[in-house]
TrEMBL record:
Entry GO MF terms: hydrolase activity, acting on carbon-nitrogen (but not peptide) bonds, in linear amides
UniProt signal peptide: none
Gene3D superfamilies reported in the protein's UniProt record: LmbE-like
One Gene Ontology term from the biological process aspect of the record: glycoside metabolic process
InterPro entries named among the record's database cross-references: GlcNAc_PI_deacetylase-related (IPR003737), LmbE-like_dom_sf (IPR024078)
Key words of the record: Zinc
Protein name per its UniProtKB record: LmbE family N-acetylglucosaminyl deacetylase
Length: 270
């Protein structure tokens, strides 16, 4: 396969580590050009650091460290404000004036499209329509990313997601022996991410588990903060062999393909 260019568009630093790091490392190792773009610096993320410019600068530094581990050729931040989350998980009332969720979608799409054109991108990866678990900035990434691909004429649009079927099954089983905190409703995952039947790409990234784990570890500011264990901290405690099994597949959806399509590489065609 001749070298091609893939742009991965994420909402905040560390999102790439959780959803697409293995695929990014794989493509870079195969000789493709991998570009990482984030909409915000993630300056309102939960951390031991106070929200604001210092946290944003720290998280961008971590983003560059993660990108280097994954073999990215270029990293860009569109410069929008982190919209944050309300206590209920929706749009925060105290978000900044330049919050990504409030950005003009066409204007933001043109910013991303300019990068896609400059890179002559063959592929752009975004999120599914639900924004995964529903973070407002993730939903905006989906809207802006799809429009940017239209403006730039980028032929392949992949929606990074998670197969929710085993996740829902696991949560149902866990609920029988474990009492979840009041603020956590496992039923919300029944409509989060994507049903397995709708997933078109299952990418085996076990060979790149070391890079994916290092990408997660680069985002140290997001491994602490708050009163409970952070997602990244828990993931990084998983032993190596089990880590490769649990995090060894990354999932994507490409709209418009025939029902039942099952592909193994981002650039595969049905």
């Amino acid at each position: 396969m001749p070298p091609r260019t893939a742009v991965f568009f994420h909402a905040h630093p560390d999102d790439e580590a959780l959803l697409t790091a293995g695929t990014m490392a794989m493509l870079a190792a195969e000789g493709h050009r991998v570009v990482l773009v984030v909409a915000t610096a993630g300056e309102r993320g939960l951390s031991d650091l106070e929200p604001g410019d210092e946290l944003g600068m720290t998280r961008l530094k971590e983003l560059y460290e993660s990108a280097a581990v994954l073999g990215c050729a270029r990293v860009e931040c569109l410069g929008y404000g982190d919209s944050g989350l309300s206590p209920s998980g929706g749009i925060a009332a105290d978000r900044p004036d330049n919050a990504f969720i409030d950005a003009d979608s066409e204007e933001a799409a043109e910013k991303l499209a300019a990068i896609l054109r400059e890179e002559r991108a063959d592929l752009v990866a975004i999120y599914d329509p639900a924004g995964g678990y529903g973070h407002p900035d993730h939903v905006q990434v989906h809207r802006v990313g799809r429009r940017a691909a239209e403006l730039a004429g980028t032929p392949i649009v992949l929606e990074a997601t998670v197969n929710r079927d085993p996740l829902v099954k696991l949560l149902r089983m866990a609920g029988k022996v474990y009492r979840f905190p009041p603020e956590f409703d496992p039923r919300t995952f029944e409509s989060a991410y994507t049903a397995g039947a709708d997933i078109t790409h299952r990418v085996n990234v076990r060979r790149y588990a070391k890079q994916k784990r290092a990408s997660m570890a680069a985002h140290a500011s997001q491994a602490s903060g708050g009163e409970s264990d952070r997602t990244l901290a828990v993931m990084l405690k998983v032993p190596g062999p089990l880590y490769r099994q649990v995090f060894g597949t990354e999932w994507f959806v490409r709209r418009g393909l025939p029902p039942g399509t099952r592909l193994k590489h981002p650039f595969d065609e049905p």
